């Protein structure tokens, strides 16, 4: 039996941070960083059956072209992903009354749609990128025992060697992959694909410098020059690796799609980010509606 301090339920029986009951959640879950983006997604639904909110975690569940979908905001960063994915998993795989794991595990489809900075110069502003794999510069995966089951060891070894990472003064990331089956069902080969660097911050952890200097002047160049099986590090953001790690460990299918708002080589930023984000939302909903329930 899972103790009250570990599986924390609110007085209405909902899970601690997300404030959701098991029946509130669809098996297909879109995650976004920004709570307002939840409304931008659900306004395309045919109908919305539920709206709930606690802290930065806003959830709408509804139906889009016959498919039941939940969209939930995670807020920014991998620390929130630990909370969101564990609690989403608990909603479907733990019996809240008996406080035990259910016998037959359920697998959710998790689709992150977020914004990112483009690392490679050729990445066009407002274009979409699919993260086939991700390097996690957060430490989240290292806290979970079965990490070797989801770690892409070869990619990581090559990364360490090619970038001479030992000289960077920054801890080595972990490497994890997307769910290929889900990516194929969504037809993500139609957009540019590559490795995503998931960072633990927006400024120095993404090589930005306002008044503080990053530890390693060569940080972005090290990332830019890396390639594995013909795939380069395309973009920088703050959730994908943590989602892939947690989904992999818990048996869920996850993919991450990003819209490129910043070109970190040219220094340009999108002239119409809301329109670019809406394009990504429409693309994703359209692809999701083609997957059988
Ligand atoms: O637009 P979202 O989904 O929040 O994603 C990106 O934007 C935020 C930083 O501005 C980080 O969360 C990053 O991953
Ligand atoms: O450069 C960017 C833009 C959006 N989100 C990020 O994390 N980085």
Automatic annotation (TrEMBL):
One of its GO terms (biological process) is purine nucleoside catabolic process. PANTHER family: FI09636P-RELATED, URIDINE PHOSPHORYLASE. It is an enzyme of class 2 (transferase). It comes from Aureitalea marina. This is Uridine phosphorylase. It catalyses: uridine + phosphate = alpha-D-ribose 1-phosphate + uracil. It comes from the Bacteria. Its EC number is 2.4.2.3. Coiled coil: none annotated. One of its GO terms (molecular function) is purine-nucleoside phosphorylase activity. GO terms for cellular component: cytosol. Residues 29-268 form the Nucleoside phosphorylase domain. It holds the Pfam family PNP_UDP_1.
């Amino acid at each position: 039996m899972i103790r009250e301090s570990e599986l924390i339920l609110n007085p209405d029986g909902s899970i601690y941070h997300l404030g959701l009951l098991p029946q509130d959640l669809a098996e297909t879950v879109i995650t976004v960083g920004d709570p307002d983006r939840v409304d931008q997604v659900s306004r395309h639904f045919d109908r919305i059956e539920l709206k709930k909110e606690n802290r930065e975690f806003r959830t709408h569940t509804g139906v889009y072209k016959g498919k039941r979908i939940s969209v939930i905001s995670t807020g920014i960063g991998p620390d929130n992903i630990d909370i969101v994915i564990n609690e989403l998993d608990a909603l479907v795989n733990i019996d809240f009354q008996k406080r035990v794991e259910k016998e037959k595990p359920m697998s959710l489809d998790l689709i992150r749609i977020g914004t990112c900075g483009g690392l490679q110069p050729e990445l066009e502003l407002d274009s979409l990128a699919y993260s086939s794999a991700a390097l996690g510069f957060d430490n989240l995966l290292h806290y979970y025992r079965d990490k070797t089951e989801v770690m892409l060891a070869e990619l990581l070894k090559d990364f360490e060697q090619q970038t001479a990472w030992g000289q960077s003064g920054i801890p080595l990331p972990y490497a994890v992959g997307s769910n290929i089956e889900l990516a194929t069902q969504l037809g993500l080969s139609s957009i540019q694909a590559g490795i995503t660097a998931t960072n633990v911050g927006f400024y120095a952890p993404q090589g930005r410098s306002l008044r503080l200097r990053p530890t390693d002047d060569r940080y972005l160049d090290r990332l830019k020059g890396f390639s594995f099986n013909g795939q380069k590090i395309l973009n920088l953001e703050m959730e994908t690796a943590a989602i892939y790690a947690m989904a992999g460990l818990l048996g869920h299918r996850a993919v991450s799609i990003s819209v490129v708002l910043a070109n970190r080589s040219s220094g340009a930023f999108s002239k119409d980010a809301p329109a670019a984000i809406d394009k990504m939302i429409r693309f994703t909903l359209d692809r999701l509606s083609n997957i059988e329930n």
